[in-house]
From TrEMBL:
Residues 407-428, 755-775 have a biased composition (Basic and acidic residues). InterPro entries: ABC1_dom, Beta-lactam-related, Beta-lactam/transpept-like, Kinase-like_dom_sf, Mito_struct-func_regulator. This is ABC1 atypical kinase-like domain-containing protein. SUPFAM superfamilies: beta-lactamase/transpeptidase-like, Protein kinase-like (PK-like). PANTHER family: ABC1 FAMILY PROTEIN. It comes from Chondrus crispus. Residues 524-919 form the Beta-lactamase-related domain. Residues 134-363 form the ABC1 atypical kinase-like domain. CDD domains: ABC1_ADCK3-like. Residues 407-447, 746-775 are annotated as: Disordered.
Amino acid sequence: MPLPSAVRYLPRRLHIFSTALLVYFTLQLTSLLNRLLRRDAAAVDAAWSASNTCAARLILRTASARRGLWIKCCQYVAARPDALPPEYSQVLSQSLDDCPPTPAARVIATVNEQLRHTECGRQWQETEGRPAVANDFFHEFDPAKPIASASIAQVHAAVLRSSGQRVVLKVQHPGVKPMLLRDLIDLKTLLKWIAGAQPRFDMRPVLDAWINMVPKETDFLNEMRNLQAVRSTLRGVQGLPEHLCADAYVPEPLPHLTSDKLFVMEYIDGCKVTDVDTMSRHDVNLERIILEITRSFGNQLFVSNVFSGDPHPGNFLVHHLSDGAQPVLLDFGICVQVPEKTRLGFAKLILAAIDSDSYSLIQALADVGVKLNRADPVASLDIIKYLFRTTAPREQARQEQAEFRKDLEAREGDIRKNERDTDVHQAFEGDLPAQSKKSSKREKTRSPIDSFPGDLVFLFRSLGMLRGLAVTLGVRHSYLETLRPFATYALDAACPPEQRLKAPVYRPIHTNGRRAARAASVLERVFGKLLEKNMMIGVQVAVYKEGKLVLNLASGRRGRYDPRPVKPDSVFNSFSSTKGLSAILFASLQDEYNIGYDDPVSSHWPEYAANGKGDTTVGHVLSHSAGLPYALPETLPMTRLRDDWEGIIKHLEESAPSFEPGSRTEYHALTFGWLVAGLITKATGMTYQQHLRILTEKLGIEDECFCGTMPEDLLPDVPGSRVASMSSSIFQDLQDGPIGKLIKQANAKRPTGSHHSDHSSDAKNESSDMAGDVKEKTERVLKDLNLPGAGIAKAPAYILDLNFFNHPVMRGGFVPSANGHFSARALAKLYGAVANDGCVDGCRILAPGRAEKMQERFCDIDSRSTRGWGAGLTLYDSIDKRGKEVKQSAIGHGGIGGSFAFAVPSENFAMAVTLNKLNAVSISAAVAISVVCKAFEVPTPSWYHAFAEKAMTAFKEGSKEKNGDEASLMEKILGGEGETDMMKILVG
């Protein structure tokens, strides 16, 4: 008589729960001794490390004895280095998933019983009049000799009698499903106890998704369906580009011989993927094996949307050893099919990690349901990049893991100590209820990520296995770059076909006249090539001549991973081109409100005179000579930019100048706009935004020109939004690219401590605008390049990372020196008025003669006097069509990354370029400006002329090279290692 299940499982349960109690008392004892012995911080850390290691070993020992679910649980938790103290991940990662085989008699009984439920078994019953048995379909089947045995099933080799095909039989262990379900009940009980005793180690959110998936592993019909789905997409589906297929093989299942406890598939001959000796004897390319396995994972996740959630090295073989070798994928018992939003979030996550884009990373984590530690969300980038890091040799991998664990432990203390980081990122709390905000501040976690949802853990478990496999094989491999094309495909495919970019240039193109048509024709060809070589994402070009729009062209995509086309009404954050808007808006009010350049600021704004600023003039403010280049509030969360205009103005009023106003010029990267806006408000009694609305409505550009006035429907990056997404690679350019190399070479030749002040363009002119992922990166790059402006590192991290300007709160903030959003034609129209004595399209916005006064030179910007400050705008020397230099002939302002707008009043000409691929020096912007100026026969600003001439020559040569990329093109433009004239212009 069989024993009741409760009695049968009693020894197993006693073993599990006694281990749990022993672990609990071990940890409690450590806590008690820490208090009684009054250990210092170092001793406490050492005690907890020893205690956690002991507890993890107890867990592993019990799991190894009881196997089944408990081994799987250890493996799963080991893939979560952020969820528990690092000792658990280190110890539990040693768990093995192997089991003693089931006796032969029980194997035969299971196979015979399951064959009755198969298609072939039913047909046999009908034709032969008796139930089928194993010997009817298979020979060379030895139930006593499995080729592998795991926690759910064991595998036997056999040959089909009907065809002679070699097959494998995956036979489920008897009684495994009831035991698994009983273990799951015990696991849930343990997790509940742990959560009650130590809430910080509540593992229920971590394991819930996995617990729900485990029972599916006992259904082999489900596994067969998963295998078929993966097999079909790996081999390529109709319309799938070849580079998204993977040269990996999935065995063919035999559905007619498969049931829920018996799975029959073709036999694949080969060696285990960990059998390095065998592969070495056959000269197998191990790098290629790892590459194709990773590509197969990308295909599963982003093409078929069915990926293995429980992989381990035993589930990979390598066959065709003498013919190039090919990886074979096995075991699809636990497969994950995630919701579309989550899958696209995975794609964004991978691409954000590749691009070091902190904002997109945080956005992607939100999409996949990750709860961020609000005190330090940017730190999540470090965790994601660690999980995706390039593989390294075993010893280096151990060192990386140790450093990562140490960093995780340090973060909690750092967050508590550094309140400034909390201030920077409070904007991510959004509109949480007051009670939620209070509770979030009370939360104490070990990691910048409070919890990963189950689907995301399956992803990282799979990648963790791949990483371990690469380390075992001694292969260095970057998962990020391998997965990039698959992630990009997923995002592109999510966009409806009718909304995708179909041609490099959006139609219709607005042109008026022969010259405009010629310029448009050249730009179409150039932009097409730039898009092919990934040197451009999206660009707009607009030209006003004689006060009329004569050219308006939009090209490329709305974002790096957004396939929708840029249109003429798309709006771009043009960064410091916003200063040009502020200068023109201010000029439009000067005559009406009688504001002179020599007026003391305090005559219009009395409070400004405090702390030694009484002699500051309006001209000082407009020429960046006011002495407040870095006068930023100590705490400046995003929400303050949106909601605390009065507080920022009060801070400027109370600030003391860092140098005597008017004694020199130093770029006021952020404060310029607030100073101008404060002056407008105090002198006119109306806000900057109110005047901006009046001006834009007057010009008819109110839907394409914003600064702190953007409508709510444009703030987030959602389908239908007209706002282009910014993608910055400026720091990579300046630190690792050809530009950084040349600047470092030039600086190495200078006397120690010398700084050059002649930056290559407005993008370089705005060295104060340059920003990276974090403040430390900003300081390091500026120091390495010997560039001035390190004081900008006082700004919060989100301002120093240009990608954060995609954030809805940031878009809605009011930074009238760096946060303007424009279309090119809106910017060009503003400058069209400057070029045409204040009048454009029959509408006057500047008093007669005011545009001419804006061109009066207040001071030089660079030592060679090729550029100077006018009334809030830069004055540029230009090169005319005969190659002759024309002094101060152009007036305008650029933005970091490449956006640029300017006027040539002598030619009644104005032009604007807006773009969303931000480079230290933008090839697309320089070429566009040069092409248009040449077509219209107007002087080209000197720097753009010199750079574009080199760029066009190098581009023509490089276009013949299939592998010519942006970096190699820049090397040609700048002259490689030699000190060319172009390099002198660039680095000063």
